[in-house]
Amino acid sequence: MSGRIWLAALALVVTLAAGCSHADSKAPRAAKPTLPAEKLGPGYFVSQPPAGALCAIDSAGHRVKPSVTSDFSGPPTSNRWWSSLMFKYDPKNRHSFALHAHPLVLRARAAGLGVGYPDTPTVTPRAYMHEFSEDLLIGLAGLDAAETRVASYSDWMVTADWQDRLRLSFGHGLPFVYGERRDASAVVIRISKEMQNNWTIFAENKEAVGVRVGRHHYGLFAPLGGRWLKNDAELSLEAGTSRHFSLAVLPDGQPETLELFRAHAYAAVRATRVSWKFDEKTSTVSSDFAVESDFVAECTGNACAGLSRQPLLALYRHQWLNAGTQAYLPGTYDSPRGKMKLLAADHFEMQAKLTGILPILPGVPGHEKSRITNHVRAVLDEPELFPLGLGEKPDHDAYWEGKSFGKLSNLVQLTDQLGETELRDRLLSAIERRLEDWFDGQQPRLFYYDAEWRSFMGFPDSYGSATQINDHHFHYGYFVMAAATVARFDPAWADAWAPFVERLIRDAANWSRADESAPFLRHMDAYAGHSWANGPAQFEEGNNEEASSEELNFSSASLLWGTLRHDREIQALGAFLVTQQVAAVEQYWFDVDNQVFPADFEHPVVAMVWGAGGKYDTWFDQDPTVIHGINFLPFTGASLYLGRKPEFVRKNFDVLLGRSHGEITTWRDYVLMYLATADAKLAREHFERDPHFLPEFGNSMAFTLHWLQAWEELGHLDTTTTADVATAAVFVQGNKRSYSAFNPDPTARTVTFSDGKTLRVPARSLAWR
Amino acid sequence: MIAWDPRRVRQMLGRLALLALTWGATASAKSLTPGEVEGASGPRLNPFECQGRYEAATGNRTMAQVRVELQKKFDQLAETEPASVSAMKYCVIARLKQRLGDSDAGEWFEKAIATDPAEPGYELFFGLYWSMARGARAPVLELAETHLYRALDKLEELRQAGLYRDYHQTVEDWTKKRLLVLYQQDGQPLLPWKAYEQTGAGRLAPGAFASAQLRLSQDTRDFFYNSEMRTFTGEKLFAQSDVRADRPLTDRETWDLARAPLRGQLDTRLRLRHNFIGAVDLLYSAYQSRSGQIESFYMPTTNFVDVNVAHLGAGYERVIPLYPLFDLRLAGNYKRIERSGATEFLPERREQFDSFELKPSFSRFVGSDKITLDLTYVNMNITDLPGGVPEQALREKIIRGGKLEYALYSPLTMPAFPFGSGEPYRAATRGWAFYVGALQDDETYGVRRVVRRDLYAGTRFDSPARWALQLQGTYYQSRTIFVDPNQAAPQERTDTTQNFASARGTAIYQYRLLDPDRTPGIGDSALGFAPDMLNLVIPVHWEAAVEGPTDYENVRGGAELWFKFFQQGIGGTAFLLTVGYDAQYFYNLGKTMHLFNAGLRMGWGDL
């Protein structure tokens, strides 16, 4: 009898112990989900959303279908600068919100397309905005469309359709709107009501008419042989059966400028296409931006003399800074991204060096190993390795779980470096089990594929990730980084689960045009150099992107995954995204050259880039640390780009410190980690003044301390020296350079740096000299 | 130190005027206009965002850092933003000021309410301020209930207008829970207006509450937690004195004096409460101790008699905010007491006498910390002894006491020991209080006056986790003073044979098995009972002689369970059920005693 009691007690203790243990004790599940599901690798995703889930809905809560024409082909997309045309979030607005194409800004209406060129920003205490103001409208006589739909799109342009009567194509960097009249109605250019007393025709040249509306100059280009007829505040096109026409915003009102544009007006851009190459040997990323155009002039006699078959392109600042020597034309445009330069070309190429990507900073002699290890143990002692998230409705949703993945992934890399393999394996196991939990198609955590919108959605969702297809790149970046971390230490796991991980990458940034399970580069706006977060772009200010650093987390995670998996396509994708985004972030979030933000905008950074401008504000807090810090987090071994310009880092920190009344109290870890990339000694001094703070949710004290101590030894990033491996970084401390590289190969190799130095790196290891 | 400069006086007068206005406002239950119920301009914001932002700005920060956070919140105020956004910011500022102990926190709550008058959440937070932060030993109930009922009014108006949102259910749950907790000191509601589930109509309605507590014990210690060592030593010395047995007590007599009579006490109270008046109480108590009292100190262990005490009385209690000075709690009562068994030789004698008790408390924030001074004065005009000369018949008992407490509410840096690490970390506490106190009990028996003095100091640490620890040291001194009637000029002399003193060290560990702070609303209930708190309490003490006999030195330890629950089905009063066991070892006697206690309270005092 007493034996039974002891057995029962033992069973109770074992049960309790099991209940108290961390989630890492959970066994992988492979059972088929209860919801309809498809197998992907060893896991499943469901093809029916969980009960009660809302996916792709409008503001009234109703399901939204892609607003496309019957001849539309290809996958519907979201998160573009023009997405309000396709994703009608406001059920009362069947056309669009303002479409910030740059230099033009447009807005679809029932009667056609409103056109403006807001070259002067409105500056308020927390924002600068180039607000859309309609100068004129492109329409047809009698046009009153119930809805404007998308007829086609390509990488940075879109063609909108009004009842199959009028199609207008426009895009980033295109000074022109290219029009196609699809019935016999007359094309009408109508001066906006507000500007009807303030417009004039400043020049006419054959089919071209120069119109000044307020301070802005436009060129209207009729088909050869056609002409524009003025009638009060309208210009109507008389062009016989010719269908094609165009309108362009001109950099100035000179007749020769109108003539220049007339010469290029018949090279009508039909599609835009980005492509990239990554040469790992030289760490060079080449990004090509090409346009396909049709020459739409109907040439009779010598009517086409002097007309060019090359379109005009306007390049953003981050592009012309990195596009080498180009024959830019006179005249520039003012945009929320600074000056845009004009180029007559059907493509241009940007080149960038990839530097500063590591899985973790190297271990340096100054590391306090026991202190850091104690802090790792403190994390493992916490009741939950994947705690509930923060905010109004705390949940184990894809974003906050992602942040836990980020925290633990850094600790895996760190414990390995510290030689704490038992701790590393516990953390690694916890990550693997949790990823499997997400990938098994079982509630409460699963992925659902919305076939109509071609989108992979994680549930529980958050911040509109399902309802508006928001933020997938932010969320999945953490998952991919966690998977890349596992791939370093447990390649067999990565082999097995690669289909699922790559499906996440594909959802946010599909690199293959042939695979239409997801749109090509859903979030990444290749021409703008950065991503957009909002699915429907449901704002007059256009789309927006807040945490550029979380965007880069996705990109560098993809790069690391591709590198570790020796998947050259995904590695190149990551390299392309990283180099483009770093170039854009430095200009448009940080304005490192003081050339982008308006002179009277009193902030050194913006937290959010919008189509129309930038905001010194976040979606969730106005604390200055949050505003600055949202573009720092999360820190990983691939965050080194933040320290590319140490002088700017110090300036940014000084402003932040001043606005924080001399003490960083919020996100103290991230701010000091940021400062460390430029002045580690000062960062450490600040840290030691109060080392008892709580790190941000997605960070740990162990990683913070490791980071600060590493930079004290390393100095700052050397952006001039590259390596023949994607995962390398060089640092400069005074006159001393140190070299670090991670070898993703299963065998040891010698890494050669561009200054001739070499470093022997063991298999799947990080070395430092 | 308060400097009495004219500016400060004006400021004080201004705040007193504001206070008067606030009180005046309780008389006017103004409904929202149709425009107001639509809410302030701007997006509708969940008022718990105020709580979230407050927590984000205070979590793991020193008070100096919270002050920086507050400054940053001021920086974020902008004239051009929608009113609903401004109201949210005012609320966050108010919460931060509350945390920092700023005396003008209330003004910012008022601003939030005035800026977004339709939002009930800000009324809830202001109500929580008066009920949880302010007050002296008790909440500023009248102001707290004013705002909580206004929250209920506004919730109802939003419901009527179809503007009641998901999060308003949480506001409503919190508000009703807070009202429930607010009235738990009062007891079982007898009238519907202030009973759970409350409605806005309860604000100006009178409240009537019944409360009771029943305590049973078989214990060496009385219900007032007096020192049993002092009791037994005093009895022994008096029995040995030349006015009684005039001989040393035998070992057996000394052993037998250490006794644990069965005791029982029933306290009942009818409380009438109105927002304008405060709380007026009618009190009735009955106490009995079976064979607890020595019948004759000539033969002290021959016979122990029962003691019966009953009293009927009236009391008053109200907390008055007098910032920027302090919060004042006025509490006092008058009781008519009847008892028997307390008179030596005359166990059947019934005494009737009056007792007056005053217990004011003063409290104010010192930064984020709080200092509280409690004073006690009790005058029991005990019936004179029958017969003999009048000087020797005089009976009287006067108790005077004071306790000064300083409670730290700032986060503290403490060592952590995961896997043996001593890495320090900073954690918020629920409070760390330090206190000192003194109590003098003068009891007159004719020409003899027994003077008992208690001097004590202690600390109570409420950890951020589920446990709390209280440590206290107490010095007990007993003196008997008499007037020598043989002297021409009577002088007070000390009877040195009756002098003794002892010291007690107490440690009380408390662990919250069921933590009420983790359930902001009312928890799940079964049969109308909703558990709220379950504490395991482990008290340990050691008491030793400092002066005089050492016979009753002892160690004592035990365990108690305190279980608190709400009964929503009958109006929402709170019950506290306690059971405990202690073992006490008088090591110089070699005597071990097993002691039991149990209690059931229905809304009595500080549950």
Structure description:
The complex is a heterodimer of chains A (769) and B (607). With 769 residues, chain A is α+β, with helices and mostly antiparallel strands. In chain A, the strands form ten sheets. Chain A has an eight-stranded antiparallel β-sheet with strand order 9-10-11-12-19-16-15-14, covered by helices on one side. Chain A has a seven-stranded antiparallel β-sheet with strand order 3-4-5-8-13-18-17, with no helix packed on it. In chain A, helix 7 (472-489) packs parallel to helix 9 (548-564), helix 9 packs antiparallel against helix 10 and helix 13 (668-689) packs across helix 14 (701-714). Chain A is globular and about 80 Å long. The radius of gyration of chain B is 28 Å and the shape is elongated. The interface between A and B is medium-sized, with 27 and 31 residues.
Kindly list the characteristics that best describe this protein.
heterodimer, A: 769 residues, alpha+beta, seven-stranded antiparallel sheet, 14 helices, 28% helix, disordered N terminus, B: 607 residues, 19-stranded antiparallel sheet, two-stranded antiparallel ribbon, 12 helices, 21 strands
Compile the SSE list and pairings.
The complex is a heterodimer of chains A (769) and B (607).
Chain A: H1 2-20, E1 37-40, E2 43-46, E3 99-100, E4 105-109, E5 112-116, E6 122-124, E7 127-129, E8 136-140, E9 148-154, E10 157-162, E11 166-171, E12 176-181, E13 187-191, E14 199-205, E15 208-213, E16 216-221, E17 227-231, E18 234-238, E19 244-250, H2 255-264, E20 267-279, E21 284-295, E22 312-315, H3 317-320, E23 328-335, E24 338-344, E25 347-353, H4 369-381, H5 398-418, H6 421-439, E26 446-450, E27 455-459, H7 472-489, H8 491-509, E28 524-525, E29 530-531, E30 544-545, H9 548-564, H10 568-589, E31 608-610, E32 613-615, H11 624-629, H12 646-659, H13 668-689, H14 701-714, E33 716-718, E34 728-733, E35 736-743, E36 749-752, E37 758-761, E38 765-768
Antiparallel strand pairs in A: 1-2, 3-4, 4-5, 5-8, 6-7, 7-32, 8-13, 9-10, 10-11, 11-12, 12-19, 13-18, 14-15, 15-16, 16-19, 17-18, 20-21, 21-25, 22-24, 23-24, 26-27, 28-29, 30-31, 31-32, 33-34, 34-35, 35-38, 36-37
Chain B: H1 6-25, H2 34-37, H3 48-58, H4 63-75, H5 83-100, H6 105-115, H7 120-133, H8 141-160, H9 166-183, E1 188-189, E2 207-218, H10 228-240, H11 251-257, E3 262-274, E4 278-294, E5 304-322, E6 326-340, E7 350-358, E8 361-366, E9 369-381, H12 390-393, E10 395-408, E11 412-415, E12 424-427, E13 431-445, E14 448-462, E15 467-483, E16 492-494, E17 500-514, E18 529-547, E19 554-567, E20 573-586, E21 591-602
Antiparallel strand pairs in B: 1-2, 2-3, 2-21, 3-4, 4-5, 5-6, 6-7, 6-8, 7-9, 8-9, 9-10, 10-13, 11-12, 13-14, 14-15, 15-16, 15-17, 17-18, 18-19, 19-20, 20-21
Helix pairs in contact in B: 3-5, 4-5, 5-6, 5-7, 6-7, 7-8, 7-9, 8-9
